[in-house]
Amino acid sequence: MRTRNREPQTLGEGALDRMARILAARCINPTAITTPDETPEPRSPLDALSAGMPPRYQGAVADHPQVLAWAREVAEAAVAPSLGARRQVTTGPSLLMAGVVGAGKTYQAYGAVRWLGQRGVGVRWRATTAADLYAALRPRPGIDSERELAAVSRCPLLIIDDLGAAKASEWVEEVTYRLINRRYNHMLPTLITTNLAIRDLRIYLGDRVTSRLAQMTTRVEFAPVDRRRHRTAT
């Protein structure tokens, strides 16, 4: 049986127009389609870490002395899983940042995580507001809230933003205790921000939680200045 060698066929102008209309109908930008030979430019570990942050904090820089001291301690405690591998955050101290709304606590928290990335320390991290955390953990059909709690509890570095902003209840106190107790027992670094005065945390969270926070965290009181309003005014 004889085979024929066929020359490569090119698309005519009409076919190209039809292809363009099909792509447009499907909201596909033809210039965004890459060929197999095209590979994305490699990103640095810091760029990859920052990409997982909210846009507002992707350029955050930690400059608070106590926040920087915390980051240095976490970096010193990082270990390499094998010879020649990058050091990873495994255990370390925690930090409780208290201050008024807009004092810069969240900015400093994200800046501390970026500081670790800038120093070449690998970190698997997660950030959530307390309100979002409780919403994710609240029992409901089709959701394994216990599995989600375990995942948050085991995360090597966790940011809990706005602790105390959600409505207090026995369920909130119990979930917070279980989360904090697990991280306390495993010595996992946790960055916590709150708008409550530290003396008021006991009323909101109860004795069991505040007792563990007192032992596992360094407490930082931010100056009572709303930096958001100050930037707007200037």
Walk me through this protein's architecture.
The protein has 234 residues and is α/β, with parallel strands linked by helices. It contains ten helices and five strands; from the N terminus they run αααβαβααβαβααβα. It has helices spanning 13-25, 45-51, 65-77, 105-118, 130-137, 145-154, 170-185, 198-205, 207-216, 227-233; strands at 94-98, 125-129, 157-161, 190-194, 217-221. A five-stranded parallel β-sheet has the order 2-3-4-1-5. It starts with 12 loop residues before the first helix and ends with a helix. 27% of the residues are buried.
Spatial strand arrangement across the major sheet: 2-3-4-1-5
User: Proportion of β residues?
Assistant: 5-15%
Shape: globular
* Biggest sheet overview: 5 strands, parallel
Distance between the termini: 84 Å
Number of strands: 5
Quote the average pLDDT: 85
Regions with little confidence, pLDDT below 50 for 5+ residues: none
Structural class: alpha/beta
- The topology string of helices and strands comes to HHHEHEHHEHEHHEH
Helix content: 40-55%
Estimated radius of gyration: 25 Å
Task: Please give the count of helices.
Answer: 10
